[in-house]
Amino acid sequence: MLDKCELCPRKCGTDRISGKTGYCGAGIQAQVFRFGPHFGEEPPISGSKGSGTVFFSRCTMRCIYCQNFNWSQNDSGKKYDKDGLSGILEHLKAEGCHNWNLVSPTPWLPMIEEAADAVRKKGHILPFVYNTSGFERPESLERYKSLADIYLTDLRYAKSSSAAEGSDAPIYVETARVALKKMWDLTGAIETDDAGIAVHGTICRILVLPGRADEAIDNLRWIAKDIGTDISLSLMAQYHPVYKARDINGWDQRVQADEYRKVCDVMNDLGFENGWIQEWEAEVDRDMAGFHMKEGAGPVKKLKTTGD
Description:
By secondary structure, this protein is an alpha/beta fold. It has one domain (26-302): TIM Barrel (Alpha-Beta Barrel), CATH 3.20.20. Helix content is 30%, strand content 17%. It has helices at 43-46, 69-72, 82-94, 109-121, 138-143, 160-167, 172-187, 213-226, 257-269, and strands spanning 30-38, 51-56, 78-80, 100-103, 128-132, 150-154, 191-192, 198-207, 232-236, 275-277. Strands 1, 2, 3, 4, 5, 6, 7, 8, 9 and 10 form a ten-stranded mixed beta sheet that branches. It starts with 29 loop residues before the first strand and ends in a 31-residue tail after the last strand.
């Protein structure tokens, strides 16, 4: 599939096999910035032992406020062949993590599938969390559904102008909504084990953006109408102007408490009962992923890598 790559909605058609790279810059070997137990996800994902998170380099969007820009848009990260990527999954299982959490996996789906098949043949089984911006092709979601026991997805914009300005993705709204419906059709509501750890289902994150509370409300109303209120939502106030957003008017500020409260009220009025509402705080937690995250993790050096 890499000789004419159409994994993401941009459908570049790039011949990655010949060494060319398209919009995301991905090549033919999976590139990983960091991996390890992560405790910053929603409670049924992180649990008590952490989510076995793999932060993949490269991304299909170019968000001006991306806290992970060092590896999502720059060339940070190590390249792994199948054995190296399988080794990461095996290590996270051995660490006792509740799941394998694939952050921005889209450019690397064929490589991840190959590594996952190898690990499963050895008897190592964990639920896969497909952690995505929501900018996905339904065809790719169907093809690689074996890598998604749980979808942890975003729905960020309701206007193409905002999506274009914020993420260079003017088709995001219609694309992400179709993708969310596909995810819901594939997995349905969140299911947990006896310990409250998610094993199956979909969680949709609504990141409220500064000056764009009405877009979050628009998305909540669309979800209620087109999917229903049984879906688990994660309403987030953690936007912080980093990367290019610090110098762009309108994006260079936090979400205000009153606009966030407005979104919370609508969420409750619509009847959503499953999920989480992040508390609004005057200062965002600077230890969030992306602010101080270092490349690699202790075990990375012990695994086979190819390139830098």
